[in-house]
Amino acid sequence: MRFSSLIFLFPKTIYSMFFGVMRIGTNTETTAMKQYHLDFQEYVKHLRYDNYSEHYHHKEVEKRFYQVLDRMGEINEGDRFGFITCRLKSKGDWTIANNASNALEWKLCKDLWVRYGKKLLITNTAPYQGSIEHNLVRIKDHIHALIKLDNLRIDYSNDELQTRIEQIAQDLDEVNEKNPDSVRVRIFSYSHNSKELGNTIEYMCKTSSKHHNPLEREVYSKKQQNIKRKL
Known about the structure:
Blueprint: H1 3-9, H2 11-18, H3 46-51, H4 58-72, E1 80-87, H5 94-113, H6 115-122, E2 128-135, E3 140-148, H7 158-170, E4 183-189, H8 196-205, H9 222-230
Antiparallel strand pairs: 1-3, 1-4, 2-3
Helix pairs in contact: 1-2, 4-8, 5-6
């Protein structure tokens, strides 16, 4: 059987073996026995939950919230984070958004950490979490991403990081580089006295439900992408 056929039939296994970057969502192990800096109950948006309970699935959002924290690893006072939002081109569906999120992780790791970034990608340990959200108003998907910015190759200032990340995101094929509002980047530092990190993670996970995981990720071959778009 040809290798291309194996990829089509067993994409998760093949990509995990050869690239080490395959993941769907994040670690799903229970959070009951773990200790976290952030308590979801301090960040759940009660107003949104009370008024739109049929759209806000509290337990599912909470589960994804802790999965993002797991992805970020140990968090200390003063650690820097980048929150990124990318609006895609006019025909942006889930497959395109998924490709954009995968490409953004790859490019950020290679640029900010260079050789160490490649190791992070191969071992699937990059402190990066993407989120794909469907916008009912614009009728297309867009992506959010959170990245922990520690041990970088160069000690960038916050302004330098913002500019660099914006440029990397705008260069993605799926992003409309002619639209100045297509990419937004916010750099901030974690503080025990601030709720910015917790609010950001909750925002990324707010569309979670039993039937939808905004953190879900797939690695597709080009043939699989074409088939999925026709479904």
